[in-house]
Specification:
With 189 residues, the protein is α+β, with helices and mostly antiparallel strands. The chain contains five helices and eight strands, in the order H-E-E-E-H-E-E-H-H-H-E-E-E.
Length: 189
């Protein structure tokens, strides 16, 4: 494959993963840095990809530590691995936060199934659950929306790595703020 084909293939894989729960790249590791300067990593679900602009959409609870970390430092890394054909994608860039009152979050919320919305109806991520309530009543759907946020990661670089029986391959791509490819090169794995 040429560098152009590698770049196109990686982004096509990400784009299809946003719509396919069975895709290996549907679940990515999002890395940020906490207030103590320690790296933090967690799995997130890739919800949407804009290939032309090199944007990746992720949903989160605005009460989560990752929201606070990204508020303080928007530089993030997304990492995924596809077992076939043994490709690792590492994207670095900056994340934009879109809170519950934003147009972006409101639109994304409107597209979520009720089962996914329920994720945002409980207490803050990481808090003790305690005793479940006696009634089956949950926080109202609209209350869950008050905690729903969208992260839009603007990829500034893509590090593509393929494991092979012999001759592993690695390429690095960089993009400008509009998503245009500005450089690409093969590098030692």
């Amino acid at each position: 494959m040429t560098l152009a084909e590698v770049d196109a293939s990686a982004w096509a894989e990400l784009e299809s993963a946003a719509a396919d729960p069975q895709s290996a790249f549907r679940y990515l590791n999002l890395c940020s840095v906490d207030a103590d300067g320690r790296p933090q990593a967690r799995m997130v679900v890739l919800r949407r990809v804009d290939v032309a602009r090199r944007l990746l959409e992720i949903h989160t609870d605005v009460r989560s530590p990752k929201w606070q970390e990204i508020s303080a430092n928007p530089l993030v890394t997304l990492l995924g691995f596809g077992p076939q054909p043994k490709v690792q994608l590492r994207l670095q860039g900056s994340a934009e936060l879109h809170g519950p009152a934003s147009e972006c979050a409101t639109e994304a919320w409107s597209l979520l199934p009720r089962s996914t919305r329920s994720t945002y109806m409980g207490g803050p991520p990481g808090d003790d659950i305690g005793e479940p309530p006696a009634s089956e009543g949950r926080i109202a759907d609209a209350d869950g929306q008050a905690f729903f946020g969208v992260l839009i990661v603007r990829a500034e670089s893509l590090d593509w790595f393929q494991l092979r029986h012999a001759d592993n391959r690695r390429a690095v791509f960089t993009y400008d703020h509009l998503g245009a490819l500005t450089s690409c090169r093969w590098v030692n794995p």
